[in-house]
Amino acid sequence: MKFYIKSMVCSRCKMAVQNAFKQAGFHPTLVELGEVEIEEEPSVEELRELTEALLELGFEIIDDRKSQLIEQIKNTIVARIHHNDETPKINLSDLLAQKLNYDYNYLSNLFSEVEGLTIEKYVIAQRVEKVKELLMYDQLSLSQIADRLGYSTVAYLSNQFKKQTGLSPSFYKALKENHRKNIEEL
């Protein structure tokens, strides 16, 4: 049986959710961002207990198809931006359409309708947070960061960063206090 889990956006989230399933007596065969597959068919009582355990950890089982699709869109974007060190080789609209087996226009309209913002704006927010993280580590130049995140130029990255934060990347880097957001808060 497959479960779709809301707010499961990082490796630690995967571990926490996997442990919750194991503690509930289930045997996960697949644990990915936003998805868990188990061998067993849970009873109503087991499902209720699992739901409560996940809620205590800040996660939620998603029941309806539209919400599952939105969560899959978000997880695909988060994985691409935050968990991939390579320059993207396929554009995001093609990736989403291929991975989720829906026309991109349908996915885009659904996302906008449910989330109240476009996929593009969600991607920009995620990319800016990743830029903040990489600036904080101070291991890559702005040019390398732009390349890694698929920006065509450093100027384009800087422009988008300033629109989102009100600060230039170099000024942000010079700040002692970096105001980063959790991925799930975006």
Describe the structure.
Helix 3 crosses helix 4. A four-stranded antiparallel beta sheet has the order 2-3-1-4, sandwiched between helices. The chain is an alpha+beta fold and 186 residues long. It has nine helices and four strands; from the N terminus they run βαββαβααααααα. It folds into three domains: 62 residues, Alpha-Beta Plaits (2-Layer Sandwich), CATH 3.30.70.100; 55 residues, no CATH class; 64 residues, Arc Repressor Mutant, subunit A, CATH 1.10.10. The model has no long low-confidence stretch (mean pLDDT 90). The longest helix is centred in the last third of the chain and has 19 residues. The protein is globular, with a radius of gyration of 18 Å.
Quick description:
59% of the residues lie in helices and 9% in strands. With 186 residues, it is α+β, with helices and mostly antiparallel strands.
Shape: globular
Task: Please write the CATH class name of the largest domain.
Answer: Mainly Alpha
- Overall residue-averaged pLDDT value: 90
Count every helix, treating DSSP H or I runs of 4 or more residues as helices: 9
Rg calc: 18 Å
Name the CATH homologous superfamily of the largest domain: Homeodomain-like
- CATH structural fold name of the largest domain: Arc Repressor Mutant, subunit A
- Unreliably modeled segments: none
What helical percentage do the residues reach? 55-70%
Query: Which strand order does the major sheet show?
Result: 2-3-1-4
Tell me the domain tally: 3
The SSE string, one letter per element, is: EHEEHEHHHHHHH
How widely separated are the two ends? 29 Å
What CATH architecture label of the largest domain applies? Orthogonal Bundle
Class by SSE composition:
alpha+beta
Beta-strand segment tally: 4
Could you tell me the strand content as a percent range?
A: 5-15%
Largest beta-sheet details: 4 strands, antiparallel
